[in-house]
Amino acid sequence: MADSDYESVLCVKPEVHVYRVPPRSSNRGYRAAEWQLDQPAWSGRLRITSKGKIAFIKLEDKNSGELFAQAAVDQFPSIAVEGVTDSSRYFVIRIEDENGRRAFIGLGFVDRGDAFDFNVAIQDHFKWVKQQSELAKQAQNPDQGPKLDLGFKEGQTIKLNIANMKKKEGAMGSSKSRPAGFGGLSLLPPPPGGRAPALIPPAGEQLPSCPAVFQPASAANTDAASSWTQPCGPSMAASADIWGDFAKASGSASTQNQQSTGWVQF
Running DSSP on this structure, what letter comes out for residue 52? Predict the structure, then answer.
């Protein structure tokens, strides 16, 4: 079944009244006060349906559902449905029979809420018709839709503050930089207690606890010979002997040799 063959119900009101409308004498609009509202020509049920783009206002019998009159509305607002100037509960609709003859009749609702629903149902239908028409046009011509233009217009420029960007980059770099040690490695903090880390000697060797220091002869006293001394105390010198046989030499010959050569016994 095609969409144009499907009929949907938009609104149903159980009680409405129909009035004879006198010819309109001027272009000022219809007035419900001229219709003899206490003597309606017909009363029954109203049903609004839609089939494709057209909405149908159907007046039916309350009990049997027999059709009394029908008004086809192909656009809104139009002369097919018009409101009166003196009330919001009454309208003028254009009905048409099977032979194509047309007439204008007055339509009245007992409650103002029913009249509001009647008006909104017709408006919503034609809003939907307009949306469907726009979607169909976009589907046929997708390139003709609105496009987002992000390019610069003629004479349009932008300004960048490079100075502030460099300052921000410098501040970020200084906050992230760390002092590097030898070979690009970071220096470790000193151990607790303020002591420097102990040096570990190679395998098979022992570091001296107190190294010897060479003292050359001064320029003022040229007769004095250069000598080696140990700045450490006697106990440390005794515990760390790195000179081997020099400390073990004994005898007068060794003493004379030391006096002549200037060697000091450790």
Answer: T
